[in-house]
Specification:
The structure is a homodimer of 354-residue chains. Chain A contains nine helices and 14 strands. Chain A is α+β, with helices and mostly antiparallel strands and 354 residues long. In chain A, helix 3 runs parallel beside helix 4. The N terminus of chain A is likely disordered. At the A-B interface, helix 1, strand 2, strand 5, helix 4 and strand 6 of A face helix 1, strand 2, strand 5, helix 4 and strand 6 of B.
């Protein structure tokens, strides 16, 4: 999703006045500060309603015995095929995960394809086949679709929108606004694998890289965690904008301070090396198969046990906590003993990553 | 929607073998024969399930007291602004109508924007404002969204996916498979206004044109019809591919023959003139605010009375009937007294129309 971040501002009903000929720039798609501002300026003043204003990656529609959960995401990744996945697997997993992090069971997906004239039908078939595998793994049904074609040069291969519908029973109250002081912050594994894998597939890295995207459906893992530890407060998948952006969203939704301990944050050596050489901060790089879990400290070890036994959680770690700080912000205790604020990025670090 | 037309073929489980380097052409987005074949070749063998196979413009998910209805549509119209509407109004009405023609009440929409770098934010705001008006008119809530940006030249202004969720009570059984011999075929007004209005906005017509798109939300009209005449068998909005394509879909879903009487089909004089000059068949041109109604002949006059009193039905007409013919096809009794088969188009007549 991402008419995201919109409830971060208290005065969202007062849109910023824009210069007459303001134009969209790549940073408006970053998921960071510019995306938030665009939503605040253009979308929120007109579309504001409780479901959108909750600013989760899903909308919740209350019903008799639970809630209908809805989420939508456009996928524009470039290149379409990358180590560890492709736009098809990404399109399924992205929306399955956005539904699952609500604590809901993802049930149905729709897929909308915008295809550039001249695109190889064999490649389309590879993408569709990859979607099928991810659907089977996640147990979700594709129920409706749409196919549109635009002239050569008017799109970039293929763009895929997926929209998902799930059901959350009344037993679970999960959401970005539920983090509480004293909670632990867990991550299900190493950071930045997806972003760096996509970047390496562009051939823009000077070095050979064996880095694979982590793109995966997390609904199975979430289901196991939730049924063992029903007191979990927040699930979130740190995609566009990375862990730092995700935790900023949660800090603002829950009005809490989050403190991370840099030395506990899992990073693979190749990703760490790439990030150092290229000047990327892995805390802001997209993941597509990682889960942030915020839960009472007393349950942290039990959650880590479950995570480490699961194929998508083997490198899970406890990386921080929710504190009694007065400010809604994210702090990082650095390796060298200092503390720095992890803010939203103002522009775009890695475009076309998801 | 349009993983459409997929149940037209009995042997869909046996995909056509494609030449090695087949490529997507504009006709694959036409909504006609090539779209159907692409779906048969690439999508259906992998995604086939009862909800998709029903081949309506919506998916139906049975539940306790009714059905959840889901539909998705990408909007890629060019130009973005045209007489009578813009991509924003189109994106809302298109999906509202796809839900409403199932007999369901459309409730929630999601919107996914893919925006080209350099796009004027003022124009985006105009589009969003137009979406808001259409949402208000239709009484549907926007609950989730996504905004992505691609580099200049990698998209064409803005593309919008809308996905809708509605609820159909068990009282109504509406669908393309329900047409029965003896039924009347009604249309809610003049044909081809949308397609010709968009075409004229491209500046490709040699003549000055006052033709306005008919783009409108039809859920109010449908609701009135359905609650007065609960025996209605089929609603369908004849969008991409026009009336002829829509009726072909229905003929194949219901295994019936449909016979139209050309002299009863409403056309405005400017549209008729444009189509004659440019060589377009208005029966294949897209509409975005028109409704096909198929219902027992005994109820036809009552339906026409309701239609003619409604702002979106003032030029409604009875244009044909479902007959006891042995073939599943659509026939047109022409003005000069002959009969011709209205088949699916094999390619694309007017690309980028919706």
């Amino acid at each position: 999703m991402a008419l995201q971040d919109q409830s971060i501002f208290e005065n969202a009903s007062c849109p910023i006045l824009l210069p007459h000929d303001s134009r969209i720039v790549m940073g408006h798609g970053s998921g960071g500060r510019m995306t938030r501002d665009l939503i605040r300026q253009v979308f929120l003043p007109l579309f504001s309603n409780p479901a959108l204003d909750a600013a989760n990656d899903f909308a919740s529609i209350p019903s008799q015995d639970g809630e209908l959960i809805i989420s939508t995401d456009n996928h524009i990744v470039s290149p379409l095929f990358f180590p560890g996945g492709d736009i098809g697997r990404l399109a399924i997993c992205g929306t399955v995960n956005d539904i699952a992090v609500s604590g809901a069971k993802p049930l149905y997906l729709t897929a909308g394809f915008i295809i550039e004239e001249g695109f190889l039908i064999e490649e389309l078939a590879r993408i569709v086949s990859s979607m099928k595998s991810a659907l089977e793994e996640s147990g979700v049904l594709m129920v409706a679709g749409d196919t549109k074609v635009v002239e050569k040069g008017k799109a970039d291969g293929v763009f895929i929108n997926t929209t998902g519908v799930g059901w959350r029973s009344n037993n679970f109250i999960i959401g970005g606004a539920n983090a509480r002081p004293g909670d632990a912050v867990l991550i299900s594994g190493t950071l930045a694998d997806h972003g760096i894998a996509v970047l390496s597939a562009r051939g823009e890295l000077a070095l050979e890289s064996s880095i694979q995207s982590d793109v995966a459906p997390l609904n199975g893992l979430i289901d196991t965690l939730l049924h063992t530890l029903p007191e979990i407060h927040v699930f979130r998948d740190p995609t566009r904008g990375g862990l730092a952006t995700t935790l900023n969203e949660i800090a603002h939704q829950s009005h809490v301070e989050i403190v991370l301990d840099e030395k506990t944050i899992p990073l693979s050596l190749p990703v760490k090396t790439c990030c150092e050489m290229l000047g990327f901060d892995p805390l802001y790089v997209a993941n597509e198969g990682k889960l942030v879990i915020i839960l009472p400290e007393k349950d942290a070890n039990a959650a880590l046990d479950i995570l480490k036994r699961h194929k998508y959680g083997s490198q899970a770690a406890s990386i921080g906590s929710i504190t009694y700080g007065k400010k809604t912000r994210v702090l990082l205790k650095t390796l060298i003993g200092g503390t720095r604020i992890l803010d939203l990025l103002s522009g775009e670090m890695l475009p076309r990553i998801c």
